[in-house]
Amino acid sequence: MSKLLIEGVSRVFPGVHGGAPTRALEPISLSVAANDFIAILGPSGCGKSTLLRIVAGLDRPTSGRVLLDGRAVQGPGADRGMVFQSYTLFPWLTVAQNIAFGLRERGVPETDRQAIVAQYVERVGLKGFERHWPRQLSGGMQQRTAIARALANNPEIMLLDEPFGALDTQTRSLMQELLLDIWERERKTVLFVTHDIEEAIFLASRVVVMSARPGRIKSDVPIDLPHPRHYTMKTTADFSALKARLTEEIRVEVLAAGAH
Amino acid sequence: MPRPLEPVGNASRIGLGIAFFVLFVAGWAIATLGGFVSATFLADPLTMLADGWTLLTRFGFAGDIAITVWRVVGGFVLAAAVAVPVGILMGAYKPVEAFLEPFVSFARYLPASAFVPLLILWAGIGETQKLLVIFIGSVFQIILMVAVAVGQTRRDLVEAAYTLGCGERSVVRRVLVPANAPEIAEILRLVLGWAWTYVIVAELIGSSSGIGHMIIDSQALLATGQMIFGIIVIGLIGLVSDFLFKAANRALFPWKLA
Question: What is the pLDDT of residues B84-100, one digit of tens each?
Fold first, then answer.
C-alpha cells in the first residue's frame, strides 16, 4: 500500500486584476511507497513547490485530493514535516527550543522533550549550539536545525522544498550527505523538491521529472544506485548516465518554458 | 569625514551626544547673558537653575512632578492594557480588522487636546479626566500600530508552525505574539513619548497640580525661568524613561541583538 497518494491534483491560480488565470499544475497523480525517497525535479516555475505545498496542506488543490495513509489531507498537520527553502527557524527561540517546538505543542513532558532534542541535535551535528539564537548560525546550520525540528516531531512523511537552494555549493553537498545519512538510518518517507539534477540523483530512490508550466509529470525514473551512497558516487559511470538522461529531459522543458 | 553607514565607536558616540547639549546650552547662554534677548521673554540658564531650585525647595515642585508622572503612567498603562490585545486580535484576524480598522483610523485623528473641554464636562477636573485624555490620545495609536506589526508577521514562520502541528490559537500565542513582542515594546516606547504631550495639555486647563499647571501659573508671572525649567524636567524624564525602555527591551529580547 502506498504511504502517500496524490490523485488528480491540479491547481489554477485566479487571474490578477482580471487577467487570465494561471494553470500552475495539470492534474497530477503520484503514488509514494513507504520509506521511499522521491525527488521531484523540474525547471523553476513548473509548479513543483505548489504540489509540495498542497501535500503539506498549506495550499488547496483546485481539483483532486491527497491521501496520507488513506486519509484525505484537509490542512497542515504534524504528520507532514516540512523544511522550507527560506530560513524559517523561530528567531526568538534557541536551537534547542526550535527543535522542541512541535513536541511542546503536543504536550510531550519536559524530560522526554530534552532527550529527543538531544538526540536530534547530535544527529545533525549541532552539539554545543543548543543555546544559540538562529541569527548566530550560518545558513547551513539553520537548515540543519530546521531538519532536526521537522524530524523531532516524528512525522509520517518529510516534505523538503529546495532546502539547500540558498546554500553555497560546498555546504550544499555536505548537507546532502547529512540528509542521506539520516534517511539511510531512519528510512523516513521523503518528498524532496529540487531543480538540481545531481542532488536529485544522489539523494533519491526515484526521480519524478516535471514539465514546464503548467506542470505535469513527464517521466518517473527509478534510481537503482546502491546504499549507503558516498559522495564519490557522483563520478561513477552509472551516475553520469542518469545525469545525462535527466539533463536532456530537463533541458527540453527549460527550452519549452523559454518559448512561452 | 566618516563614510556613509560606517559605525561610530561607543566613546565618540557618547561624546558627540553630550557635545550637542553643551553647544545648545552655550548658544542659549550667549543669547541671554550676552543681552541679545530680553530677560522678559527668555530667562538665562543660571536664572533657570535658580528658579528651578526655588520651585523644588519652596513650592513643592517635586510633588507636581510626581503627580504628572503618575498621570502619564496610569493613563498609558490603561491604554496599553486595552490596545495591545485589541491590536493583536486585529492583526491576526482579518474580520476583526475589517470591523474595527475604519473606526480606529478615524478615531486616531481626533486630537486628544480637543477632548479636554468635553472631558471636563463629563469627568470633572479630577484625576479621571487627566487619565482619560492620555488614554484617548494613546489607545487608538497603539491599536493601529500593533495591528500593522502583527499583520506583517512573516508568513513562512506561520506556515512552519502549522506544519509543526500548531492550531489557530497556538499560532497566535506561540508565533504572532513572540515574533512581534519587540516591535510592540518599541511602539509602546514611541507612544509613551506622545502621552507626555497630552498630559501637559490636560494640565494646562483646569488643573491645580502637575508640571503643566506650574507652567501655566508661571506664565501669569512672566517667570520664564520656571517655565523653561518645567519643560526641561519633562525632557529629562522622557530621556530617562526612554533609557529604561531600551534597557528593558535589551534584557527581554536578547535574540534581537545576538
Answer: 999 999 999 999 999 99
Prediction ipTM score: 0.91
Cβ-Cβ contacts under 8 Å for A209 (sequence gap 6 or more) = A41, A42, A217, A218, A219, A220, A221, A246, A249, A250, A253
CA distance A37 to A47: 19
Residue (of B64, B25, B27) closest to B48 by Cα position: B25
Beta bridge partners of B16: none
Residue A246's closest CA among A226, A221, A212? A221
**How far apart (Å, rounded) are the C-alpha atoms in residues B225 and B55?**
10
Q: What is the CA radius of gyration of chain A?
A: 19
Count residue pairs from A and B with Cβ separation < 8 A: 74
Q: Give the gap in angstroms from C-alpha B159 to the nearest C-alpha of chain A.
A: 7
Residue A1, pLDDT score: 66
Tell me how far apart the alpha carbons of residues B133 and A109 are, in angstroms, rounded to a whole number: 48
Q: Is A128 buried (19+), middle (13-18) or exposed (0-12) by CB count in 10 A?
A: exposed
> What backbone torsions phi and psi does residue A145 show, to the nearest 5 degrees?
-65, -40
| Strand-strand pairing, A206-210 and A217-222 | antiparallel
Question: What does the pLDDT look like over A69-97, one tens digit per residue?
Answer: 989 899 999 999 999 999 999 999 999 99
- Contact with chain A for residue B159, Cβ under 8 A: yes
Alpha helices (H) in A107-207, listed in sequence order: 110-123, 139-152, 169-186, 197-203
Cell 486616531 belongs to B108
Is residue B258 within 8 Å of A133, Cβ to Cβ?
yes
Residues of B in contact with A90 (CB under 8 A): 157, 160-161, 175, 178-179
Q: Spell out the SS3 assignment of B113-180.
A: HHHHHHHHHHHCCCHHHHHHHHHHHHHHHHHHHHHHHHHCCCHHHHHHHHHCCCCHHHHHHHHHHHHH
Q: How far apart are CA A166 and CA A200, in angstroms?
A: 16
Q: Given 3-state DSSP classes, what are the helix, strand and coil percentages for chain A, each rounded to the nearest 5?
A: 40, 25, 35
